[in-house]
Amino acid sequence: MNSKSACFILLKGLRFHAPVGVMSQETIVGNDISIDLRIGYPFQRAMSSDNLDESLNYAEVYDIVAGVVREPVGMLERLAGKVTGKLFEVYPDITSIDIRIIKENPPMGADADGAGVEIHLINEKTEC
Question: Of 34, 55, 110, 126, which has the fewest beta carbons less than 10 angstroms from its beta carbon?
Fold first, then answer.
Protein backbone atom coordinates (compact mmCIF):
# COMPACT_ATOMS: atom_id res chain seq x y z
CA MET A 1 0.00 0.00 0.00
CA ASN A 2 1.31 3.43 -0.92
CA SER A 3 0.92 6.22 1.54
CA LYS A 4 1.26 9.93 1.08
CA SER A 5 2.83 12.10 3.74
CA ALA A 6 3.28 15.76 4.45
CA CYS A 7 6.46 16.96 6.11
CA PHE A 8 7.04 20.38 7.62
CA ILE A 9 9.98 22.42 8.87
CA LEU A 10 9.00 24.78 11.70
CA LEU A 11 10.58 28.05 12.80
CA LYS A 12 8.67 29.65 15.64
CA GLY A 13 9.00 33.03 17.28
CA LEU A 14 11.74 34.50 15.12
CA ARG A 15 12.19 38.00 16.54
CA PHE A 16 13.38 41.03 14.62
CA HIS A 17 13.48 44.80 14.94
CA ALA A 18 12.42 45.77 11.43
CA PRO A 19 11.80 48.91 9.37
CA VAL A 20 8.14 48.12 8.74
CA GLY A 21 5.18 50.49 8.95
CA VAL A 22 3.05 52.86 6.95
CA MET A 23 3.92 55.85 9.13
CA SER A 24 7.27 57.42 8.19
CA GLN A 25 8.47 57.25 11.82
CA GLU A 26 7.94 53.48 11.84
CA THR A 27 10.41 52.89 9.01
CA ILE A 28 12.96 55.12 10.77
CA VAL A 29 12.55 53.81 14.32
CA GLY A 30 11.39 50.33 13.35
CA ASN A 31 9.05 47.89 15.05
CA ASP A 32 9.46 44.65 16.96
CA ILE A 33 7.99 41.79 14.97
CA SER A 34 7.83 38.04 15.38
CA ILE A 35 7.56 35.51 12.57
CA ASP A 36 6.37 31.89 12.63
CA LEU A 37 6.95 29.66 9.61
CA ARG A 38 5.60 26.22 8.75
CA ILE A 39 7.25 25.10 5.53
CA GLY A 40 6.13 22.01 3.64
CA TYR A 41 9.19 20.24 2.32
CA PRO A 42 9.71 16.62 1.15
CA PHE A 43 12.35 15.48 3.63
CA GLN A 44 11.27 11.82 3.79
CA ARG A 45 14.75 10.61 2.76
CA ALA A 46 16.37 12.53 5.62
CA MET A 47 14.17 10.61 8.05
CA SER A 48 16.22 7.48 7.36
CA SER A 49 19.52 8.90 6.08
CA ASP A 50 20.15 11.55 8.76
CA ASN A 51 21.67 13.64 5.93
CA LEU A 52 21.08 17.40 6.07
CA ASP A 53 21.39 17.64 2.29
CA GLU A 54 18.10 15.73 2.03
CA SER A 55 16.20 18.22 4.17
CA LEU A 56 15.72 21.97 4.47
CA ASN A 57 18.41 23.67 6.52
CA TYR A 58 16.49 25.90 8.92
CA ALA A 59 19.60 27.97 9.70
CA GLU A 60 19.77 28.92 6.01
CA VAL A 61 16.03 29.66 6.02
CA TYR A 62 16.55 31.95 9.02
CA ASP A 63 19.35 33.82 7.21
CA ILE A 64 17.10 34.37 4.19
CA VAL A 65 14.25 35.68 6.36
CA ALA A 66 16.62 37.96 8.29
CA GLY A 67 17.94 39.41 5.03
CA VAL A 68 14.45 40.16 3.72
CA VAL A 69 13.31 41.67 7.03
CA ARG A 70 16.12 44.25 6.90
CA GLU A 71 14.54 45.86 3.81
CA PRO A 72 11.99 48.64 4.59
CA VAL A 73 8.34 47.90 3.76
CA GLY A 74 5.11 49.67 4.54
CA MET A 75 2.83 46.75 5.35
CA LEU A 76 3.15 43.34 6.96
CA GLU A 77 1.32 41.90 3.96
CA ARG A 78 4.17 43.08 1.71
CA LEU A 79 6.77 41.64 4.09
CA ALA A 80 4.98 38.27 4.08
CA GLY A 81 4.93 38.32 0.28
CA LYS A 82 8.63 39.13 0.06
CA VAL A 83 9.64 36.44 2.57
CA THR A 84 7.57 33.70 0.97
CA GLY A 85 8.56 34.75 -2.56
CA LYS A 86 12.25 34.54 -1.69
CA LEU A 87 11.85 31.14 0.00
CA PHE A 88 9.96 29.69 -3.01
CA GLU A 89 12.67 31.13 -5.30
CA VAL A 90 15.61 29.68 -3.35
CA TYR A 91 13.93 26.33 -2.53
CA PRO A 92 11.72 25.27 -5.49
CA ASP A 93 10.87 21.95 -3.76
CA ILE A 94 8.94 23.74 -0.99
CA THR A 95 5.36 22.50 -1.24
CA SER A 96 3.70 25.09 0.99
CA ILE A 97 4.38 27.91 3.40
CA ASP A 98 2.33 29.09 6.33
CA ILE A 99 3.64 32.40 7.65
CA ARG A 100 2.46 34.50 10.56
CA ILE A 101 3.94 37.94 11.17
CA ILE A 102 2.99 39.89 14.28
CA LYS A 103 3.88 43.52 14.97
CA GLU A 104 4.30 43.38 18.73
CA ASN A 105 3.62 47.07 19.52
CA PRO A 106 1.30 48.30 16.80
CA PRO A 107 0.69 52.06 16.88
CA MET A 108 -3.09 51.83 17.08
CA GLY A 109 -3.87 53.01 20.60
CA ALA A 110 -5.00 49.62 21.88
CA ASP A 111 -3.85 47.40 24.72
CA ALA A 112 -2.89 44.35 22.65
CA ASP A 113 -0.18 41.73 22.35
CA GLY A 114 0.13 42.55 18.67
CA ALA A 115 -1.46 42.79 15.26
CA GLY A 116 -0.46 40.94 12.15
CA VAL A 117 -1.10 38.73 9.17
CA GLU A 118 -1.23 35.01 8.53
CA ILE A 119 -1.00 33.50 5.05
CA HIS A 120 -1.11 29.95 3.67
CA LEU A 121 0.52 29.49 0.25
CA ILE A 122 0.80 26.35 -1.88
CA ASN A 123 3.52 25.96 -4.51
CA GLU A 124 1.63 24.98 -7.64
CA LYS A 125 4.87 23.66 -9.20
CA THR A 126 5.03 20.86 -6.64
CA GLU A 127 1.41 19.67 -6.85
CA CYS A 128 0.62 16.33 -8.53
Answer: 110
